[in-house]
Amino acid sequence: MKSAIKSGLLALAAAALPAVASAHPAIGEAAGFSHGFAHPVSGLDHVLAMVMVGVFAFQLGGRATWLVPTTFVLVMALGGALGVAGIAVPFVEIGIALSVVVLGAVVALNVKAPLAAALGVIGVFAIFHGHAHGAEMPENAAGAAYAAGFMIATALLHLAGLALGYVIGRAGERQGVFVTRTAGGIAAIAGVGLLAGLI
């Protein structure tokens, strides 16, 4: 059991490892694929939320395994378009921090939400995350590459979450549930820290 817990926590730490820089780089640096790709993986808030989306999708199983991440990426693109168009979305930073709290708690509590409800919640949070990316997207030819970068990075973080859920599940029903709840709890606590401005 100890090795299963250690493996799960190491996987969560590895997923969060890129979060060593500011979540939102300067607008002047936001150009092209590489900067778009770096944006979601450079902030703890984005990394934790995206990985939790993947774990949540794994927990729901069935069609949710692909519908939850796909919906997030597509709705995030809509949020990005709003940001690029300069259309204000209130409380973006709070919404992003809340997404970490809620998604972490949902994973920790193993909430078996109906698919429609899960997609609705995921969609709301995707708007906030997308707007944060889009507000820093350049309005030139590099904008499309930047958008592709942040969408691909987000999808890869979702895949990391799905893989994390699978690895934890392989640890066995009892140990897997404990490790998943621990990982979700850590994410939720980190989200509270983000809301409070402590992280």
UniProtKB/TrEMBL annotation:
The keyword Cell cycle does not apply. It comes from the Bacteria. Residues 1-21 form the signal peptide. Pfam families: HupE_UreJ. InterPro entries: HupE_UreJ. Coiled coil: none annotated. Keywords: Membrane, Signal, Transmembrane, Transmembrane helix. The chain crosses the membrane at residues 39-58, 65-85, 91-108, 115-132, 144-166, 178-198. This is HupE/UreJ family protein. The lineage of its organism: Bacteria, Pseudomonadati, Pseudomonadota, Alphaproteobacteria, Hyphomicrobiales.
